[in-house]
Design goal:
- Chain A: It is a multi-pass membrane protein.
- Chain A: It comes from Mesorhizobium escarrei.
- Chain A: It holds the Pfam family BPD_transp_2.
- The complex is a heterodimer of chains A (365) and B (522).
- Chain A is an all-alpha fold and 365 residues long.
- In chain A, 78% of the residues lie in helices and 0% in strands.
- The longest helix of chain A has 40 residues.
- Chain A starts with a helix and ends with a helix.
- Chain B has 522 residues and is α/β, with parallel strands linked by helices.
- Chain B folds into three domains: 250 residues, Rossmann fold (3-Layer(aba) Sandwich), CATH 3.40.50; 166 residues, P-loop containing nucleotide triphosphate hydrolases (Rossmann fold), CATH 3.40.50; 72 residues, no CATH class.
- Chain B has 19 helices and 22 strands.
- The longest helix of chain B has 16 residues.
- Classes of the chains: A mainly alpha (365), B alpha/beta (522).
């Protein structure tokens, strides 16, 4: 029991030692994150070799299209906008210990309501007010969609992993139904919603094709990060997540906080859908489901629910998905190879984490 | 027992413990315990929760290894390295909670643990079970699903499993805690038949009546030490009442060499002062695994310490939680300074000065992964000056936390250390600092020294005395009678969720409380 015998150190000394410790900690974290990613790239390369594709060419195309070509990087940054909102929503939920896996349903319902309302609003209201109203409607609808899992979890203790997943299936179907039956554009033969004119969409940044939704996404994830780490509200959510019994003991209203977490998380997912529609797509086609919600989950885990790290991983994910699509086309690899790559990264990271944990345990013992 | 007699009969022991000590961080769970287990005897291991019974069983069944001392099997020192090894040595354990697979049949459960490459030998099993059950006079439905059996029947299956595996020593850990009175009597009869066949049984309980009814030899554990033993000769010579009173003396009696014994300083509580806390007819509904409370009434005046004595699990935790607002009361009133608070939330009760120091320090008292500094303010999240407009003021938090660390002598490497890394005593200091900080008027201490080492125990007790001396009302819940006698002004005894009596802490309080605890009138 070294702790018992250790003298109580004064506050100033504490800060100095812990400062060095944090730096070493960050270095260790970086090594533990980048090392496995490199290893995963090597493993994925071996798979490419096995199917007769030059891995260097593949990675080269990924980087060229996703990162280095002017058009590619603009597409990558545009893709980040909805992903950042989704990541922000997941950070709130995961830090509070609630596994909201219903992001896709909430995303699509937000997208559909935004797509349905925006073309109507822009005709009767000023531009900014119209877009704000559409965003708000998308947020409210997604929040309502999360109410069932939220209330079940808060008052009945029903596992939210199952309920949110089930609600996501219902949500995607409902979004489809809405597109085909209710909000269908009578002017086209394809089942899709009315298209928002390009000049009424979110403005593009400078002279590029990058949507200004990127800035909104960055703002959202940074605000979420600061709220979770620096405010009383964020601390309450983290207490609920880390030890629900301690939250009850400390007098926190756990059911209310649980419902709030689901509402915020779903609201951000709905906002992601709205930003993608109002910023980029302009309409929702029937059967459209990019499944961003599930793709973002690994990125948030890799970032350990840290907002700033999540920005980096969302960027990486965007590069991989934009560049991967192009590289796959050029080399004849299935489009889904991007997913294979991402999952190999995840598995290697998990293994590294396990080995690191075992190493720490054995060093302590 | 004299050393001469113990060495002459040692050869008869199936298993013997010699000076076995087991330590956990901050706790000595077993302190040089000697125990001899013989065929044909029911050895009762008696002690309250936390007395070290489970640790002892863990070491006998191969789950834990002793830090000091040795275990002899058939007279030879043998380290029991794993549960599998324990079974091979003939030591079978029936744990407190059923360890059967509910969706499988009895036969399938009995066959579990066979070699995986062989077909289960069902016929062989049936023959063996028939042989065992006929001599024991029990019937077991081999093809019934375990989930369809009553708890008593499941227990018989577990005992049968130990017998099928040719156990010579059967350990029954709190086996009566989930049985009906009839089931308990049947288990007693079964144990008797088993020992008549030459088996050795270790029977763990904290119920005195069962110990007296079923045992041949009783060993009493208290705070990790074996404080006494009643050998079979004495056991047979005494009547049931005499045995119980002797056990009470062993479990709750004062030891001459007790280092914790402190004379209670005479404090003057102003009898005319208005009560700070008034509880009247408080009731709580029982749940699946906890007793309810019924018509609990008491007053505590400023500067007074009221003790709640009783065997653990009789509603102490429910009482504390109902007062703190964590558990819904079904009736009754709670008044703090004359104001009714029974309808208020946990947070509102705390703001009015009611504080609850929980006994579950890591489970609900703290968030283990959070730094020490934040854990000081877990119940004040959002309150000025540590948060302004909802934003954390790290400098204010660190400043106050540094003060508290110094004031309460919390030994921590840094304020940022996750609180779970501290020892039990230091976590308790963090909780004391949090609950006794400014604004406290009435404090509930639930088992405040449970699991602490001596130095921290004494320090915690001094804190509680100081608290009362400052004019606060104190409710001290403890299963340690010594502790209550050394600190309280009055001691109430709780049994089955009701207060069965209140005793002024004067000369003969020890006997009176002890009698109330085992269900006799004071």
């Amino acid at each position: 029991m070294s702790i018992d015998t250790a003298p109580t150190v004064s506050a100033t000394a504490l800060d100095a030692t812990s400062g060095a410790a944090t730096r070493r900690d960050i270095l260790h974290r970086l090594l533990m994150t980048l090392g496995p990613i490199l290893a995963a790239l090597v493993i994925a390369g071996c798979i490419l070799l096995a199917v007769g594709v030059d891995p260097l060419a593949y990675y080269g195309y990924v980087l060229e299209k996703g990162l280095f070509s002017p058009l590619g990087i603009q597409q990558t940054l545009t893709r980040m906008a909805p992903l950042l909102f989704l990541a922000a929503g997941l950070i709130v939920a995961f830090r509070a210990g609630m596994w909201n896996l219903g992001g896709d349903g909430q995303f699509l319902l937000g997208a559909v309501t935004a797509a349905a309302s925006a073309p109507v609003f822009v005709q009767i209201m000023p531009f900014w007010l119209a877009l704000t109203c559409s965003f708000l409607i998308a947020v409210v609808v997604a929040m309502i969609w999360s109410l069932v899992p939220a209330l079940l979890r808060a008052y009945q203790g029903v596992n939210e992993i199952i309920t949110t997943l089930m609600m996501t299936f219902l949500g995607t179907s409902l979004a489809n139904v809405l597109v085909k039956l209710v909000f269908r554009d009578p002017g086209t033969t394809v089942p899709q919603t009315r298209t928002l004119p390009v000049e009424d969409r979110l403005p593009r940044l400078f002279d590029t094709t990058i949507t200004s939704g990127l800035l909104l996404g960055l703002a959202a994830i940074i605000i979420v990060h600061l709220v979770m780490t620096r405010t009383a509200f964020g601390l309450k959510l983290r207490i609920v997540g880390a030890n629900p019994r301690a939250a009850v003991h400390a007098g926190l209203g756990v059911p209310g906080l649980t419902t709030a977490v689901f509402a915020i998380s779903a609201g951000l997912a709905g906002l992601a859908g709205a930003v993608d529609i109002i910023g980029v797509q302009g309409n929702v086609r029937a059967d459209w489901n990019p499944a961003y919600g599930l793709a973002v989950i690994p990125a948030v885990f890799l970032a350990r629910m840290n907002g700033f790290a999540a920005i980096g991983f969302v960027f990486l994910l965007s590069v991989l998905s934009i560049g991967g699509e192009s590289a796959a086309r050029r080399l004849g690899v299935p489009n889904h190879f991007t997913l294979v790559l991402v999952s190999i990264v995840l598995i290697v990271l998990a293994l590294a984490e396990y080995v690191d944990h075992r190493y720490n345990q054995s060093r302590k013992a | 027992m004299s050393s001469l007699s113990s060495s002459s009969v040692a050869a008869r022991d199936i298993v013997a413990l010699e000076g076995v000590t087991k330590r956990f961080p901050g706790i000595v769970a077993n302190d040089s315990v000697d125990l001899s287990i013989r065929p044909g005897e029911v050895q009762v291991l008696l002690g309250e929760n936390g007395a070290g019974k489970s640790t002892l069983i863990g070491m006998l069944s191969g789950l834990l290894q002793p830090d000091e001392g040795r275990i002899l099997v058939d007279g030879k020192p043998t380290p029991i390295t794993s549960p599998r090894h324990a079974l091979a040595l003939g030591i079978g354990t029936v744990f407190q909670h059923m360890m059967l697979v509910p969706t499988l049949t009895v036969a399938e459960n009995l066959l579990l643990g066979g070699r995986w490459w062989q077909r289960p030998r069902t016929e062989e099993l049936a023959a063996r079970v028939a042989e065992i059950t006929s001599t024991l006079g029990i019937t077991v439905k081999l093809h019934a699903k375990v989930s369809e059996l009553s708890l008593g029947e499941q227990q018989q299956v577990e005992i049968l499993r130990a017998m099928v595996r040719k156990s010579r020593l059967l350990i029954l850990d709190e086996s009566t805690s989930m049985l009906t009175p009839k089931g308990i009597d049947e288990l007693g009869a079964l144990m008797r038949r088993l020992v008549e066949q030459g088996l050795a049984i270790v029977f763990i309980t904290h119920k005195l009546k069962e110990a007296a009814a079923f045992g041949d030899r009783i060993s009493v554990l208290k705070l990790g030490r074996k404080v006494g033993e009643i050998p079979p000769e004495r056991f047979r010579a005494l009547g049931e009442q005499a045995i119980i009173s002797e056990i009470v003396e062993l479990m709750f009696g004062k030891q001459s060499d007790d280092p914790e014994a402190v004379e209670r300083p005479v404090r003057t509580v102003h009898a005319e002062a208005a009560p700070l806390l008034q509880v009247a007819d408080l009731a709580v509904a029982p749940t699946d695994n906890a007793p309810g409370l019924s018509s609990i009434s008491f007053d505590i005046r400023p500067g007074e310490i009221l003790g709640i004595a009783g065997i653990d699990g009789n509603g102490q935790k429910q009482l504390a939680e109902a007062l703190a607002g964590q558990r819904a009361a079904t009736g009754g009133s709670v008044r703090l300074e004359g104001v009714a608070i029974e309808a208020l939330s946990v947070g509102e009760r705390r703001r009015r000065g009611l504080r609850y120091l929980t006994d579950d320090r890591l489970g609900e008292g703290t968030v283990g992964t959070f730094p020490v500094s934040i854990n000081f303010f877990l119940k004040q999240v959002g309150a000025a000056p540590f948060w302004r407009n909802g934003v954390e003021q790290r400098a204010e938090i660190d400043k106050r936390a540094t003060q508290l660390v110094r004031e309460y002598d919390v030994r921590t490497p840094s304020l940022k250390t996750p609180v779970a890394r501290l020892s039990g005593g230091n976590i308790q200091k963090v909780l004391l600092a949090r609950e006794l900080a400014e604004g406290a008027k009435m404090v509930i201490f639930n088992k405040p020294t449970y699991g602490l080492d001596l130095a921290n125990t004494l320090a915690s007790r001094q804190r509680i005395r100081d608290t009362a001396a400052r004019g606060l009302a104190v409710l001290l819940i403890s299963t340690d009678l010594e502790e209550l006698l050394s600190m309280c002004d009055r001691i109430a005894v709780i049994a089955n969720g009701a207060l069965v009596g209140t005793v002024e802490n004067v000369d003969d309080a020890r006997t009176k409380v002890g009698r109330l605890m085992i269900g006799l009138a004071a």
